[in-house]
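Posted in: Protein Modeling Q&A

I'm a second-year student putting together a small comparison for a lab meeting, and my supervisor asked me to include a predicted structure for UPF0173 metal-dependent hydrolase QPK24_05090. I've never done this before, so apologies if this is the wrong subforum. The sequence is pasted below exactly as I got it from our records. If anyone can share the structure token output, I'd also love a short note on what stands out.
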Amino acid sequence: MKITYYGHSCILVEEAGKRVIIDPFLTGNPTAKIAAEDVKVDAVLLTHGHSDHFGDTLTIAKQNDCPVVAVYELAEYCQSQGVQVQHMNIGGSCQFDGFKVKYTLAFHSSSLEVNGTTVYMGQPAGILLTMGDKTIYHAGDTALFGDMKIIGEMNDIDTAILPIGDVLTMGPEDAAIAAEWLRAKKVIPVHYNTFPFIKQDANSFTELLEPKGIVGVALEPGASTEI
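Accepted answer (user: helix_wrangler)
Welcome! Here is the predicted structure, written out as tokens:
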């Protein structure tokens, strides 16, 4: 499995010819190294509706004629905008051609500004994505919460993708605890340095993981890692 980081919380995952993108905030993302028009995928997965995660969802889904996978209310909105969707919700899983998606809890919020009005977009979520024999966990935007221990006990997580920016999500110290609770073999930090108020030192975060026996991989936007 190949994971490519495109800045903020956007990642592209590839395995055996299948490609999915999670939280494709590219346009307006000062760290992004790819344009939405250049993304080729089989599905768009969303953790929640905030604009810095929803991003270029509609553009990518339309140009690839692919589904948007999201929590029910967010999927309903996407469907109203003329794209294919797969409605999901917390705790549910769905098998697609070449990959499986399961939605987990996340403690955050979820809304999108539509015609100048803030609209509720259902519960925020984390995503367990399995392709081949590998599983990654994208935590979305979340606080540290105790059920991460259960997620780690129930799933063999090869790589966890965790926010470290603080202010709006977990900070580095809480994310390091989350990594341990999730029993992740490898952790990729996200949701930092996009804007000044979430500036963090990702290398310092990976150093917090070393005593726990967890490999931290701080990717530059546009860089990839294999698992």
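A couple of things worth pointing out for your meeting: The helical segments are 51-54, 57-64, 72-80, 148-154, 172-182, 202-209. Residues 36 and 59 are 7 Å apart (CA to CA).
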